[in-house]
Amino acid sequence: MSLDLLQFYRACNPSKPIDMSASEREKYYIDFSAVRSRNIIDELQANITLFSPNTATCQLFAGHIGCGKSTELLYLKSILEDAGFYVVYFEASQLLDLADVDIGEILLAIATYLSQHFPPAIAPEATGIWQSLLREIWKVFNREFQLGSMPHSVQIATETLQKENQHPSLSSELRTISTYAKHSPELRWKLRQYLEPRLNLILQAINTEVIEPAMIDLQQQGYKGLVTIVDNLDRLEAIEKPWGRLQTEYLFVDRAEQLCKLNCHMVYAIPLTLIFSKEFGRLVQRFGSDPKVLPAIPVRDRRGQIFPPGIDLLQQMVLARAFPDVARERRLERLPQVFDNAQTLERLCYISGGHPRNLLRLLHRWIEKERQLPLSRNVLEVAIRERCHQLLLSLSEPEKDLLRRVADRQRISPTENSQLLLHNLFVFEYQDEDGSWFDLNPILLEAPEFAR
To answer: How far apart are CA 242 and CA 257, in angstroms?
Structure first.
C-alpha cells in the first residue's frame, strides 16, 4: 500500500503536538531520553508520585521553543494519569496575551481551566468569594463600555451575578473575562488595578472553592491527587515592564510566591532565557528546586563528530508519521516510499540540529515544494539554502561574531544576549554525561561565514 502524500503532510504539521491517548502514543511517541543524557519527564513524575504524592509541589520545565516540550508535557500527563492522578493540562496562550501578562491574569487562567476540566458533577459554580469578585470585575468592565454599546454577554453576566439565587458556571464567567482582557489593553489595565490588591483573596478562592472541594470528590472517585500543567508560558516575551523589569523575571522571580501557593501539584513551562539570567539563583530559591531543562537531541557530539544514536531516533520520529500503523522495527524497510535514499533522511535529521519543530518545519516546506513522493535530495538542499538565507538576513555583523564565540566556547554566559541566541534558534543546547554544551544551528553552518 502506497503512502498518501496529503496524509503524510498533515502528520508532519510542526505546530501540532502528538495526541497522547494510549493508542496514538504507542504509534507516534519516540523516547529521546537515552540520547538526552537524562529522563527529565521521569524526574518530574517521580517528584509527584514517589516523593510527594500527598503534598502540593511546584516544578518548572524549560527548553527551546519547538524542542518538544509540549509533546513531553502531554506525555507526562498521560503517565501521571496511568499512575492514578487527575491531570489538567492547558496552553496559557489560549487566554493570555503573552506580550503583556500579569500575575492576576495567570491565576484567573488557572482557575478557568481547572473549573472547566473537572467532571461536570464537581465543576464549581460562581458562589461565595467568586460571586463577589466576579460581580465587582463586571462592574469594572461595565464602566469601560460606552453606554449602549455594552456586549450582551456582559449585561447577562452582570444581571445573573446580581441575583443571589442564581449561580452561573465559574469557568464560563472566568473565560469570558479573560477573553475580553486578552483582546483589550484598556480592560486588561483596569482588571489589573482591581486584581492586584486582591491576589491573596483570589488565591484563597482558587484553593478553597475550586481545588480543595474537587480534591475531596476526586479522591472519593479513586484518584490519588490533582496535577495542573501550564504550558506555553515559555513563550512569554521578554519585554520590559513600565518600571524597567523584564516581564519574564517579574512573573517567575518577583511573583513566584503566588505561583507556588496553589494547593495542588503545579508544573509550569518557563522561558529558557531565565536559565541564563542573572536572576537564576533567586528563581531557584523562590521555587525551591532547579528547573528541568529539555535539551535538543544531539546529532553530533562535543568534538563535532556525527552522533548516530540521535540521528537514528530522529529518523524514527519522521517514519512514525509516515507509517504509524507499521511496527517500529519494520518502518525502515518502507523508507524508499518516502525518500529517494537513506542518506537524504539522514541529511534532514542532521541539519535540523536535533530540534523537532525545526525538522518538521523543514520537512513540511520540502513537501510543499516537491509535491510528490519519494522526496528528493535536490529539493531538500533548496529548502536548506532558503532557510539559511532567512537566518542570515536577521543577523548583524556583531551578532555573527557573538555566534562564532559561542561556537568556539560551546557555552553561553549571562552577560550575552541569550534572547537573541536561544529564542531565535541560532544556538541549541545539548546535554551529555559531562553536562550542558551549546552549538550553532547546523543550518547556519551551511553559510560560508560560519563554515568549519
So the answer is: 21
Q: Long-range contacts made by residues 366-375, C-beta under 8 angstroms, separation at least 24?
A: 367/5, 367/8, 367/9, 367/12, 368/9, 371/5, 372/5, 373/2, 373/3, 373/5, 373/8, 373/337, 373/338, 374/336, 374/337, 374/338, 374/339, 374/340, 375/338, 375/339, 375/340, 375/344
86-91 vs 226-231, strand pairing mode: parallel
Q: pLDDT of 418-442, one tens digit each?
A: 667 777 889 999 999 999 999 999 9
Same structural domain, 105 and 47: yes
Task: Measure Cα distances from 195 to 104, 190, 210, 244, 254 in Å.
Answer: 6, 9, 18, 21, 16
β-pairing, 58-63 vs 292-294, is parallel
Give φ, ψ of 132 to 5 degrees.
Answer: -70, -40
Query: Same structural domain for residues 67 and 189?
Result: yes
Which of 237, 270, 294 is the last residue before a domain boundary?
294
Domain span at residue 75 reads 17-294
C-alpha grid cell, residue 111 = 482557575
Q: What is the DSSP letter of 14?
A: T
- Grid coordinates standing for 87? 491531570
Name the phi and psi angles at 415, rounded to 5: -80, -10
Which residues are registered as beta bridge partners of 308? Answer: none
Cβ burial, residue 329 (10 Å; 0-12/13-18/19+): exposed
Q: pTM of the full predicted structure?
A: 0.92
d(CA 246, CA 438): 24
4 and 43 share a domain?
A: no
- Which of the listed residues 237, 272, 294 is the one where a domain comes to its end? 294
Q: Which helix (H) or strand (E) holds 133?
A: helix 128-144
Locate cell 481545588: which residue? 211
Helices (H), 151-184: 152-162, 170-182
Note the pLDDT tens digit of each residue in 308-342.
Answer: 999 999 999 999 999 999 999 899 999 999 999 99
Closest CA relative to residue 114, chosen from 202, 54, 188, 41: 202
Question: Beta partners for 33?
Answer: none
**CB neighbours (10 Å) of residue 198?**
16
Does residue 121 sit in the same domain as residue 136? yes
> What is the number of domains present in the chain?
2
Angstrom distances, CA of residue 298 to CA of 18, 100, 151, 303: 21, 34, 53, 12
